[in-house]
Amino acid sequence: MSFFSIARATLEKDIRLEWRSKDAINAMLYFALLVVVIFSHSFDPTAEESRRIAGGLVWVAFLFAAVVALNQTWARELRNQVLDAYRVSPAPATPLFLAKSLGNFLFVVALEALMTPLFIVFYNLRAVGPAWQLIPIAVFGTWAIVVNGTFFAAISVRTRNREIMLPLLLFPFSIPAMMGVVNATSAVLTGEYSARVWIAMLLAYDVVFTVAGLYLFESILDAE
Amino acid sequence: MKRGITILAVVTSILLCVALYLALAQPDWPFGTPTERTMGYVQRIFYYHVPSAWTAFLLFFVNLGASIVYLVRRSEKADIVALVSAEVGVVFCTVVLVTGPIWAKPVWGIWWDADDIRLQSTLVMWLVYVSYLILRRLSTSSVTAVIAAVVSILGALLVPFVFFSIWFYRTQHPSPVIAHGGSLDPRMAVVLLVNWAAFLSLAGLVCWTRYRLEVAKREVDETQALESLMETSR
Q1: Residue B59 located in a structural domain
Q2: Does residue B119 lie in a domain region?
Q3: Average confidence (pLDDT) over A156-175
Q4: pTM to 2 decimal places
């Protein structure tokens, strides 16, 4: 089987599983909703202030919610020894990692699409800067969270307390990506400065960690 | 081997005593160090702060090198070096993060300057390495070495992004004007270097002892595992 057929098979299987069970997306949605409600009760900002802080609130909520889905991504494969079966099969490891990252990307993007209107309503948001830039920001920012998250989730399943290990690894590594995505979002919302450099940095981050993840994933999967 | 450690311990103690004397000595004492004109005595914490930072970064660099060697050659020694350098590096990095604010409060008027690129990036690297050590502690022993080595390499890839994001953030936001740089009095530079030598020697001593401890611990674990295996096969 070629690289892409393995990746497609894994991705299709993950989407089908998620479509039938809706475990990850429901948990993520409800979790993000709770974060939004708690934030909106903790702060009572004016329209001007909320434009400044909304970028941070939105992405912190997405990061926390993404962890819920990422924790399930490999744990699901531990049941019935699916991961062991994959390991003994002659299929290479990299398409598996790519497919898992893409699957998580789709789930988190779906979450963002559903949660963003809610944020707009709760915080009365309106973009002053060029709003179209929010699309590359969301795509690159989400991929930054998801590609590292998928990789660290694969590491976390090899530990005791795996549910705790994932955020402990993912959060420090996400600090530059979060700075990029939050500042870029704030730049668009407030229109005070340009988001271009932050978007470029996010793209560079994505490229570096995607390549590193693809390259190093095999040693994680095959670690004995 | 044991003699080497004793010699290093003696050298370290002497160096640390000399370094402490030089760091605290008044200008009119023999071999005294000049007191900084504007900052006063509080500047002397620099003799601990800066060498700790250099030592910590050196140890993190050693950790990266050992991790790469481990992934390529799968040698257990490299894994122990990686573990030991990360542990000792985190300790020195903690010293940096504690002494920094103590110095900053009287000089800058604030404990923590959120825009200071060195302080912030040191904090992020400290977080990465603490996570690394927790991962080593929590992972099942058979896979620890591989996944730790991989995380260490990813940590190195993170460094430029940490630097860039903090630096670029600062260019966008007005920050308090803080004078950096300025030339160092040559006598101060000597004290700084003596302190660094002392700290390096201390780091070397601790790493070496910890290395031997880890080797012994793994031997004991292996023997116990073998014994229990023989018990069950009997």
Answers
A1: yes
A2: yes
A3: 90
A4: 0.89
